[in-house]
Amino acid sequence: HLSEERIDAEYFTYVIEELYKEFGLPIWITEFDWNRKGAVTDPDYMIQAEQLEDFYTLMFSLEAIEGIMMWGFIKDHGSLVDQNIKPNAAGEAYLRLYHDDWRTNSSTNLNNVENTQTMIRGFRGNYELKISSGGTRTNEVFTFSLDEDMEIMCKQSENGWKCNQ
User: Fold this and answer.
1) What backbone torsions phi and psi does residue 81 show, to the nearest 5 degrees?
2) Which of 51, 82, 110, 159 is deepest in the core (most CB within 10 A)?
3) What is the pLDDT of residues 91-140, one digit of tens each?
4) What secondary structure does DSSP assign to the chain, as a single string?
């Protein structure tokens, strides 16, 4: 729980890295709220949005952070929604990070050329790889987990597509 001070990225990075060095355990961010006492006047939630985006982006970038759990999205100060449960500026910042910035949605057209390669930068997590050929999606779905850099090779044969990692 944070008060009205701006988030100090250097300080938080130092603390998280020291905890991770000391204990070697993954860290979860929970119960983030800023301006919890309402000391900062922020009627349009723009400052809250900036603080949320800066803090969550920093935490997401650190190796030690296993995940971020949203907590308390509606309250007197530091809310993410208005009285009608519609996202305010802070809520919109959260939604943009979660649904856009931190998602890997990629589509690549290889124009049916053999030995064509593509590279996709993805976030850690579980993936489904679906291949379309000639405008028709195949029935095969290849699943994999991305924890570090990896290479997946897919080839079309008489029996359909085969992918290995």
Assistant:
1) -135, 160
2) 51
3) 999 999 988 888 887 777 666 555 566 777 787 788 888 877 666 666 67
4) ---SSPP-HHHHHHHHHHHHHHH---EEEES--SSTT--S--TT-HHHHHHHHHHHHHHHH-TTEEEEE----SSSSS-SB-TTS-B-HHHHHHHHIIIIIT--------TT-TT--------SEEEEEEEEETTEEEEEEEEEEESS----EEEEETTEEEEE-
Q: For helices 9-23 and 46-61, give the axis angle rounded to 10 degrees.
A: 30
Measured at the CA of 154, the angle between CA 143 and CA 148, to 5 degrees, comes to 55
Tokens, residue 122: 């993805």
Contact at 8 Å (CB) between 112 and 142?
A: no
User: What predicted TM-score, i.e. pTM, was given to this entire model?
Assistant: 0.69
C-beta contacts of 94-99 below 8 A and 24+ residues apart: 94/52, 94/56, 94/70, 97/53, 97/56, 97/57, 97/60
Is-contact 54 40, C-beta < 8 A?
no
